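User: Can you recover a sequence for this backbone? Please restate the input before giving your answer.

Assistant: Of course. Working from this structure:
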């Protein structure tokens, strides 16, 4: 039992500690300079945040497979408008309707800023998700210490990706997208360059080639030959074809490779490999006999799903690609990693066209539903998130059940205004739509392409004039046209990304750790810490402490192997 003196001493020590802690926290809030931001710090902090969240959730759950779904640019406003759109399209109650992933049991928030930008791009954000380290805009699989477009500066600063770790751990790995397979998001699963634009060799400046950098198409094939990547489905076909070779499907399109390599032929040298370039061929693939599957379904990005349906194109849906990828990968005994991107949600938003953005989000949700159906009972963690948001707004006081793509009908201007029949009116007496953009090509001033008034998809303006006649007079029918561009307040050639948090929706083993708000790079750590094979692969690369916990960026042996010549 302590004497009176010892308990007084203990009390005094406790008070002293409290004072020290208070002083420390006061100093911290007064802006004591923190340790410099480095890859090491991002990795360690992401790992610690994941460890804490996993502990709070009752400890790690072991997952065998993981699928990361990435809705490019799919901010919360897009998700809300898309579930109303998807519900209304089925004749259901749109406000109550839930997209497949909105029914997932666990959710969290993701902070998306990059080390150099408040509002991020798709390259740095996907690098954060794939490597556990935040980095600069425009960087793919390279940390913030490099300089953009400077190949030499990236040497020694490449970061192994989740897909590469999976491949090293014996998991089968794949990437699926509706964009070019060399575009920022999919490239960040297998590639490394300090410039997202280096998709095909023709894009690289000579000094980058001399310094040893390769284009993403070549890096993707090299990744497959290194035994890391088994399935790649998306667009960007001509980046894999030698210059001059005619596209098999679209007249007037030719291969772009100046090095003369035929990268499709290089893929076909992999064991049990298949190459397909349309939906008919894809659905005929015998997954049981295929170990390496390459599908390139368009010379560039796949068409929007709406245009695919309207023009009856032989391009697969994202759900079809997802289904086939799972069928090929799931035969691997040690499990698999798959990344699926709804890449054109972002493109439709940049184009200022809410209809296509909502329809692409619906198609993305169908791909998620397909994955949920095909992975039941297989120990598969499914994580759905976005890389960043956009400037789409959902506004006014439309009455319940109002067409999400229509004019606002209900109270005008104020939530307690009298509801009159017909469309609500702005202060100028003109109708307005529920959805709008803060900036982009929907600005109603005249451009060198379209006259003053409402704008139509596609609107690729070179120059724009100020608004002379005020807001356009729009009718409900005009607003509901699939090609209508919602009004934008600030005229820009392309609508921009937005900087607020995006959502994370998770289900399956490991999902319960997804709760609270995370820096985006913590997503990597939440996944790797709950897949024993991935964690072991990290530890083999000297990333772990004495307790086997990943605490520092892994060390990879030098550069990626080149594409085998021949
Ligand atoms: Zn974008």
């Amino acid at each position: 039992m302590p004497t009176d003196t010892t308990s007084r001493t203990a009390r005094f020590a406790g008070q002293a500690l409290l004072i020290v802690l208070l002083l420390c926290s006061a100093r911290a809030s007064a802006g004591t300079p923190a340790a410099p931001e480095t890859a090491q710090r991002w990795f360690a902090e992401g790992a610690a945040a994941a460890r804490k969240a996993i502990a709070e959730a009752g400890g790690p759950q072991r997952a065998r497979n993981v699928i990361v779904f990435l809705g490019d640019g799919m901010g919360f406003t897009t998700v809300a408008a898309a579930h109303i759109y998807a519900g209304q399209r089925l004749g259901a109650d749109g406000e109550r309707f839930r997209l497949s992933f909105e029914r997932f049991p666990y959710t969290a928030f993701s902070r998306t800023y990059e080390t150099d930008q408040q509002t991020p791009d798709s390259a740095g954000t996907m690098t954060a998700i794939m490597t556990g380290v935040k980095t600069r805009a425009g960087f793919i699989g390279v940390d913030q210490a490099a300089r953009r477009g400077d190949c030499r500066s990236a040497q020694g600063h490449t970061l192994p990706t989740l897909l590469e770790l999976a491949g090293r751990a014996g998991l089968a790995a794949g990437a699926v997208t509706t964009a070019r397979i060399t575009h920022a998001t999919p490239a960040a699963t297998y590639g490394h360059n300090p410039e997202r634009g280096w998709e095909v060799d023709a894009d690289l400046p000579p000094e980058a080639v001399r310094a040893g950098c390769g284009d993403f198409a070549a890096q993707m094939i090299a990744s497959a030959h290194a035994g890391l990547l088994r399935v790649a489905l998306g667009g960007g076909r001509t980046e894999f074809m030698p210059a001059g070779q005619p596209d098999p499907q679209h007249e007037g399109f030719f291969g772009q490779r100046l090095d003369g390599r035929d990268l499709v032929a290089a893929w076909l040298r992999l064991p049990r490999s298949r190459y397909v370039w349309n939906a008919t061929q894809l659905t005929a693939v015998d997954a049981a006999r295929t170990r390496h599957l390459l599908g390139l379904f368009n010379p560039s990005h796949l068409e929007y799903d709406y245009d695919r349906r309207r023009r009856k194109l032989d391009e697969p849906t994202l759900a079809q690609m997802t289904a086939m990828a799972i069928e090929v990968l799931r035969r691997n005994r040690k499990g698999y990693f798959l990344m699926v991107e709804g890449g054109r949600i972002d493109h439709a938003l940049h184009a200022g066209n809410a209809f296509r953005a909502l329809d692409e989000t619906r198609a993305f949700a169908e791909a998620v539903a397909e994955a949920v159906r095909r992975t039941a009972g297989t120990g598969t963690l499914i994580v759905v998130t976005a890389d960043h948001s956009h400037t789409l707004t959902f506004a006014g006081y439309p009455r319940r059940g109002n067409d999400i793509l229509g004019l606002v009908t209900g109270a005008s201007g104020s939530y307690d205004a009298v509801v009159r029949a017909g469309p609500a009116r702005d202060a100028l007496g003109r109708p307005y739509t529920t959805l709008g953009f803060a900036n982009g090509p929907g600005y109603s001033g005249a451009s060198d392409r379209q006259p003053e008034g409402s704008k139509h998809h596609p609107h690729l303006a070179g120059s724009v004039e100020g608004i002379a006649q005020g807001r356009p007079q729009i009718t409900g029918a005009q607003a509901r046209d699939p090609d209508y561009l919602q009004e934008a307040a600030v005229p820009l050639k392309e609508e921009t990304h937005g900087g607020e948090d995006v959502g994370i929706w998770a289900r399956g083993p490991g999902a319960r750790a997804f709760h609270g708000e995370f820096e985006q790079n913590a997503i990597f750590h939440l996944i790797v810490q709950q897949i024993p094979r991935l964690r072991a692969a990290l530890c083999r690369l000297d990333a772990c402490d004495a307790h086997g916990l990943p605490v520092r960026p892994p060390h990879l042996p030098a550069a990626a192997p080149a594409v085998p010549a021949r």
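That completes the design. The CA atoms of residues 149 and 195 lie 5 Å apart.
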